[in-house]
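Two records follow; treat each independently.
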Amino acid sequence: MKTLLDFRMKRYIFYTILSLSIFSLLSHDACRSPFSEDLGEVTEKGDIVEGTGTIRYLSFEFGFYGIVANNDKYYDPINLPSAFKKDGLKVMFKAKMRKDVGNFHQWGIIVELIYIIKS
């Protein structure tokens, strides 16, 4: 009887440690910032662009909002949330450049936002 209890106790301890380890790994990854370490600069890696910029309202072509990045490049987001549609708002963003999408604005590079936060 004692060996059966010892076995159950060891199994309980093993599964407890395993569960805590998995939880620790998952929660650590969830707390990471979606932005790279050098966020102060606007960087383009492949089709991903990230950095800081300013939201601007442009009144031509029926009016729309774009991002003027700190490196003076223009980005035309296709999915800018309404909470960020404020002229002059400083933001940090990460976006995917969409060369497969066209629009009639003819202003900047078309991007699909992955993350955007106020800075």
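The next record belongs to a different protein.
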Amino acid sequence: MAAGLRLAGIALLGIVTASLASWLIDRIRDVEEESEIATRRDIAGLTAEGRAHRDEVGLMRNREPLTFTVILDFAGSRKKECPKWLPVQVQDQLTGGLRKRQD
């Protein structure tokens, strides 16, 4: 009788442990599925953003350079100054290298 009771206790403990493990695995699987969905959504968003940047760069490459009249507007001024937002190399080209240097 004692051996049967001991065997039933061990079997019951095994069933409870298996049920707990199954429940934990289901919870982890649900979290992983939600995480995978979020990751796929993020990847799709980043891919779309990358394509938009690529298209924008393509448009920028196809733009015409500064026209001669714009260059004359900057370089032909008596002050020989360019807007500060222009890159230094462009400022030097437009002012003939007369840009004030900050040393």
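Discussion point: Residues 65-97 form one domain. How would you locate this feature using only the token line?
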